[in-house]
Hints:
By secondary structure, the chain is of the alpha/beta class. It has 15 helices and 19 strands.
Amino acid sequence: MQKRVYLMLRVWGNFIDGKWVRSSSGKTFKSYNPAKPSQTLGIFQKGNEEDVERAVSAAEKAFPLWSEVPAPHRAEILFKIRDLLKKNKQRFGKLVTTEMGKVLSEGLGDVQEAIDVFEYMAGEGRRLFGHTTPSELQNKFCMTVRRPIGIVGLITPWNFPIAIPAWKMSAALICGNTLVLKPSSDTPLCAAELVKLMGKAGVPAGVVNMVTGPGDSVGSAIIKHPKIRGLSFTGHKDAGKYLLQNAGIKKVGLEMGGKNAIIIMDDANLDLALEGVLWGAFGTTGQRCTATSRVIIHRSLQRRFEQMLLDRVRRLRLGNGLGKDTDVGPLINEAAVEKSHRYVAIGKNEGAVLLCGGSRPKMKGCFYHPTVFTNVKPLMRIAQEEIFGPVLSLIPVDNLDEAIDVANGIEYGLSASIYTQNINSAFKAIEKMESGVMYVNASTIGAEVHLPFGGVKSTGNGAREAGIEGINEFSEVKAVYVDFSERLQRAQIDVVKVLK
Length: 500
């Protein structure tokens, strides 16, 4: 008699006050493998406003104790998180690839970012610098100190399901905040495993809370909650606009995508530029806010570069990200596939020339052929709107000034790049290109955790993550005056006469 083997899926709870608990909604949803949509990875709570209220109450109860722990001791826990991530890097990297789809080397890179940022922010526990400054009055001392915001709400996307929550949580925790995390419903398993690991590292109950579920209930409840005093959001600009309109008086940090360009000048190293374009456009299947979606190329190089690019793109191998021979993994879900295909149709209708791709392969899963358009005009929709898929536009120009104008002629301003051997051209681009991140002779992606990350224009609201700017995002600055003159002194009114 043949035995049937059933795979028992874990039903994950929300993580509130150090415990895994079911949602008061009584409803759940599933997470799937985008390379194999028939494979269910886990069952998760479809949270609601009541769950958020419980999470906020837990964070509120934990805040006084956690915020009073000296920052170097908070750092000890962050170092333990780093060590556990190192120990579990392979497992977590495979998890990222399985749930999100990116190839394994990138999945491991996702985890390495989390390792790096927990290490960096733990180091800030010995600093958290304020500054001192002279007073305008005698016998008076002036300084600034950092204080935590309080309870912060974190809303994170699916494309970096370990790294981005780590960027936000590490900075929030070292500053002494408690938090409520809402991860993307496309990658809740990655977030749950990360939160579970943080508990093992010794994060006290109530300091880190997680509620899974849809944006219109869980996300909105976090955004509007009066006891949440800070919000950090990474995602689509429409959701960011909703957040700003509904958050009330809170400290808010937004990162809302990009339409990033690589400029290739006539003196560029084309072989180097080719590698940068391939990595920028088709790494993570184009699903990065820093992805290269536009190549602004000097017209004299256009035909030559097109042939070089086509030769390489046609050899890219689609498949499960865990496969050793896979170059490009799946898109996150079927809706993302349909969106990429819809923009291909838009590009064709606008008159752009399709060089390759533009269709689904005959294979199961959320796959789409790497796609290249040429002779794209700057104001075409495929050159203006964020596609978040493997669709690249080549835009020919005649000179550097035109290239910079085209690069800036969008509503976003996250990442930008120029390939040139001319130092004058490089520095002109650095000065004139409207972006929060700038690369010279490198692709538009590859943030390092000790430098600030974020953008201008519709990419964000001025906030930056990582580096010291991550500390700025998750702390408040208090000005402190110590007057030891033993009399009332009034700044701007009492003038000290020290010179005779």
